[in-house]
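Project standup — Tuesday

K.O.: blocked on the structure for the chain from last sprint. Re-posting the sequence here as requested.
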Amino acid sequence: MSYPHSPAVSGPGRIVVVSASVGAGHDGAAAELARRLTAAGATVDRCDFLDLLPARLGPLICGSYHQLLNYAPWAYQRIYAATERGGDSGRLTRAVLRRAEHATLRILPPDTRAVVSTYPLASQVLGALRRAGRLNVPVLTYLTDFSVHPMWVADGVDTHLAAHPVPAEQAVAAGAENVTASGPVVNPRFAPATAAERDAARARFGLPERAPLALLVAGSWGVGPVEQAATEIRDSGAAVPVVVCGRNQALADRLRASGVEHAFGWVEDMPGLMHASDVLVQNAGGLTSLEAFASGLPVASYGCIPGHGRTNAAALAEAGLAVWVRSQDELKPVLTELLEGPLGQAQRAAGLALFSEDPVAGPVAEILAAAGSAVAGPAPDAVAAPAGGRRPAGRRTAIVLAAALATTMLASPETTEAAVARGSFHLLHDLGR
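H.V.: unblocked you, prediction finished:
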């Protein structure tokens, strides 16, 4: 896509990448984009969108979302499904996002050439600023999920970048006008292992030398039916489970106490652990799945978390990149086929085919092209602040707004109020005590 800005300026200049510390996937994608853009000669600033929200709502959003996945996954699934059909943001969500617009403009330096979002709420704010003429440089959204919730598609965003044609088609169906299936980006440390690298990694992590290993991951928070999945993998006899629990150290301790020997908390050397493994079993379909594809591992989706976990599993299956195992009876035959059969070979080939050897290609090339054709400088904030300045939200209001953003994102007013009536906010209120 070409951007009609004149006069053009040479070189990529400054690019601002806006992410959010909700889990690790959004930040992981942002970090790799920033690394590659910097290597290509751009000056890159990174920003956490949660820091731009009013009334310190960012930590509440993280906590609310985390607690829902842990203690009320049924509510999250119901709300996610309703908002997926709704296609319109609720009143509370729109109000909070409007209040984040001025703060967003403030973090864009005058020499900004392009802004990249890896988080849907940030894309909504940036798109609104672009649409209103308050931001005059290109905005691109990098879709971190393999399935595309309507919240990812923001009017005013110049380009939506997808890892594969399946999410690209979903983005178009959700109303995005300019979508490019530009491929994924993961750190180059994620690559197929040699036999020597495999043996060394197993020794380093204290893993069995010869047994087939199933690497079970559950995101940075370690959510979902992880204990059940680990036990069922072990009892199937198809592979030895190696479980990564993220920051949920209590889960790792429980697994080891229950006889699942190889359970880890936060792992810094995930490339090494993938080198040691033979198959990945995941429940959310995020960045770790892409890292597994780059590592040459076949992937199975199992025990998927509600909402995006299930829609990502469906999209990965549609793309031929991962098998969605829906029952315990399917687990052993699927793992055996992925480890030893033609299905595993086909998935390894399909996963590796997603990646270009050129680091300045795919999404990075699209971002550089946008930045290179832009006039430096975001437009000044043309909307005056309300008289009397910003009034800080009260405690009760902050919790309700956090819940609206964390659980619905695109919820219609009716959906949000129904969620409140069902008692979801009783749990969230406990977070604020």
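K.O.: great, moving the ticket to review. The longest helix spans residues 25-39. The longest strand covers residues 14-19.
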